[in-house]
Amino acid sequence: MKVLQVVETAYRATLEEQDDTIIWLTHAMRGAQAELDLLLSGNAVNYALVGQDASGLAFGEWRQTQPPRLADDIAGLIKKGVQVHVVEDDLAERGLANAHLVEGVGRIKRASIPELMEAHDQVWHW
Amino acid sequence: MAEKKTLTFALMDPPYESSRSTTALRLIDIAAKRGHTINVFAYEGAVALPFAKQKAHANAVHGRDEAAENHPLPRDWIAAVMQEAERNGGKVDWVNCGLCVDERGVAEAVEGVRRGSPADFWKMASASDNTLVIPTR
Amino acid sequence: MAEYVLIESRDPFEFANVGSYCRLAASLAKAGNKVTLFLVQNGVLQARIGAKDGGMAEAAKSGVTILAEEFSLRERGIGRDALVPEVKPMALDFVVDRLETGAKTMWH
Question: C-chain residues within 8 Å CB-CB of B5?
């Protein structure tokens, strides 16, 4: 079974969780031999951006030692054989048409999403 | 009689924060009435849905004591759909994501809920006729 | 040709991306698939006559069947005669019916 994971919501509790919990879930399922691909859409296209820095969270004397490193996590999925796509139209809407993205991320036009969905047995929209 | 199916649901919302939790359980109840085998992977806040220590309360604004208020507890809804599935020849296998349980401190769950991991979700989904992910916002 | 059920629980007044979801439904239909847009919870708010169209009209023109969950409608005081013509009321059972047949079912 081949599944397309669609991630649209971004930066939801990522500091508290030290991860995007769906990117993390994708990693964990890939570790269990799941056949998954990832489509970043909406605000989640920002996850493909090089240069995100979430370090420095502190409360009183408490310091975060493991901030989320979302671009690294995206690169990690690509290394594990997960195809990662990002919606070009959503990048452009957010001023990211020419942004420096993680290597290996594929840009697709919104109009091509049906074809991508057709190529998967299931589509899980997170 | 209609063919029995195996359906998997992934939930994310905690109790009392979104209509999605209620709609999700309504869908599971429909599937339970049909006697299907139902897998639930509770992820993130949804692991608190079957938390055993949910407690009902009165409602002073409406002048109702605890009994009259009959405040819904999602753990009761979950127990009810589990019983409904069994009554109709099916079952509900509810898996709480273990790490999500740990960080929220909600290990005490109603009977029939077990601890698991993303590997369980993949295993359940792979063996199902269909899977519906109900995401949080 | 595959079957898709796109469940829309959000409304276009609070969420800007509801339009994108309607457009996705339309493009899946134009690609030859059987597509249902199933409105539930606040998603039904856009189905009321007089409400600003968040993309449903285009989806309907593209061949998408648009349904609104009966309880969600009643909960929000939207009677059958208050629904825009392209939307039909439907019980939540519809979603389980389609899951049983293997329709690719997504929730927004």
Answer: 99-100
What pLDDT sits at residue B1?
Answer: 58
State if pTM tops 0.95: yes
**Third-level CATH fold of A2-125:** Hypothetical Protein Ychn; Chain: A, (3.40.1260)
First CA to last CA across chain C, in angstroms? 22
For A90, nearest residue in chain C (alpha carbons): C20
CATH superfamily, with its number, for domain B6-46+71-134: DsrEFH-like (3.40.1260.10)
Chain C contact residues (CB < 8 Å to A)? 2, 4, 17, 20, 23-24, 27-28, 30-31, 33, 104, 106-108
Q: Provide the edge-to-edge strand list for the sheet that holds A84-87.
A: A106-108, A84-87, A35-40, A2-7, A122-125
Are the Cβ atoms of B118 and A126 closer than 8 angstroms? no
- Which pair of structure tokens corresponds to residue B8? 């998997």
d(CA B125, CA A32): 13
How many Cβ atoms sit within 10 Å of the Cβ of residue B125? 25
- Closest CA of chain B from C97, distance in Å: 9
Predicted-complex ipTM score = 0.97
Task: Flag residues of chain B having pLDDT under 70.
Answer: 1
Report percent pLDDT > 70 for chain A.
100
* Chain A, window 30-69: residues with a beta carbon less than 8 angstroms from a chain C beta carbon: 41-42
Spatial separation of the C-alpha atoms in residues A90 and A107, rounded to whole Å: 10
DSSP per-residue codes, B81-106: HHHHHHHTT-EEEEEEEHHHHHHHT-
Q: Which helix (H) or strand (E) holds B12?
A: none
Domain C3-107 classification at class level = alpha beta
Average pLDDT over residues A41-56: 97
Q: Percent of chain A at pLDDT above 90?
A: 100
10-residue stretch averages of pLDDT, chain C, 108 residues long: 96 93 97 98 97 94 98 97 97 98 98
CB C108 within 8 A of CB C8: yes
